[in-house]
Amino acid sequence: MRVVYVLLAVSILFSCSNGTELTVLNTTPQKDIRVEGMTGRRLRSYDMGDLDNASNEERAFDISKLDDLMSADKIRNALKNIDDQEALFKTWHVDEATSKAVLARLMEKDKRIANMPILAKYNDFRTRHAFNTIMDSWLDTKTLDEISTALKAFKTDPMTIQFRAWYKDGITPTQFTSALNKITNPDKRKSYGALESHYKEFVKMKDKEAAATIKKAAEEMN
After folding, report:
1. What SS3 state is found at 112?
2. What are the DSSP calls for 61-108, one per residue?
3. pTM of the model
4. Number of other residues whose CB lies within 10 A of the CB of residue 142
5. Which of 24, 31, 58, 82 shows a CA-CA span of 20 to 30 A to 13?
6. Which residues are the signal sequence here (predicted)?
7. Distance (Å, rounded) from C-alpha 32 to C-alpha 50?
């Protein structure tokens, strides 16, 4: 009987021991599951934050304003008149959110081909502002590009106004050429050759006018 009791006791202890080991083993996966679940919740929370940020960016621009900013009349006038074009593009380029919204509307599949003329001009406008090069305190490529764009539309006023300002400040054709030579892109530099020639002629004309005025004043004094 003692043998039976001993065997029975050993059996019970063995069973309890196995049970304890199983409990520990079962606990570990449960902990892993809880950690994984928490990690998953953290990831989901992070993803929701990303969505919130994206939504905030979308909300940064009021889509309802597009209809007014991009009205057919405004675009039509912009294609006809350089002043209207510059004015319109400035409202489109007021900030990154507005510009992206405008481009997205222009690039819609059913409108892309029809919008190509205005899209090309707006991209030129954006390029002028994004890649502006400052050659001197009084000269940058943005200014030159705006003058060149106006000349293509047979508008000489921007060029004349700028030339007068340079002449008044004593900017010589040689200084203008030296500033232009700071442009490292040869094609870009070449594109301003016409303006370089125009300014030389402008200065010659102004010098002649000044000389004639001085001569006339001297004759009147005599």
Report:
1. coil
2. S-GGGHHHHT-HHHHHHHHH-HHHHHHHHHHHTSSHHHHHHHHHHHT-
3. 0.56
4. 15
5. 31
6. 1-19
7. 27
